[in-house]
Target: DNA methylase
Amino acid sequence: MDRLIELETLIARNQERFCQIGRALKAIRDGRLYRQALFDTFEAYARTRWDMGRSQAYRLIKSYEVIHNLSPIGDRMPANESQVRPLAQLAPDEQRKTWKDFINSGVESSALNIRRFIDSRKPQPQSKPDLTERITDEYLAAVNAMLEQVRVAQHDHWQKTSRQAALLWNRVMREKILSKGDG
Model:
């Protein structure tokens, strides 16, 4: 049990360092300081010097930016990079509002709970109304007649009607259908 407590304490102490690492990486990237170490790109620097892939380096930078953005809210901050990740997808003002609402919700701070909280706030996609009952019999008959003419023209290898003419009429019909006027 003592070993577990020791290891968990070590993890807890070092979790907050993700923000410090992100701040340092941001300064190195933004100031192009990696060139002083003779690297052409920030990505090559992070990969070679820190054995860190591009995505991880940029996630840490983004995490720092989010924490910096949230800092005016108060003492309770996300504890690790995985908790920050769902917030990083939001605009800065939305990050602050969402984090404040999450804290006030009383839900345990975990990456999964934060992601679920954010997902629950996203507007649900509206289903498109079924307009098929608005189609008149006359319109349906006209469309079917046109489709039959296209099938015949295709069967005749476009000998009596050019393919360009069919495409033109298709475009005209589409424009008429999509137009808002009664034209």
Summary: The mean pLDDT is 83.
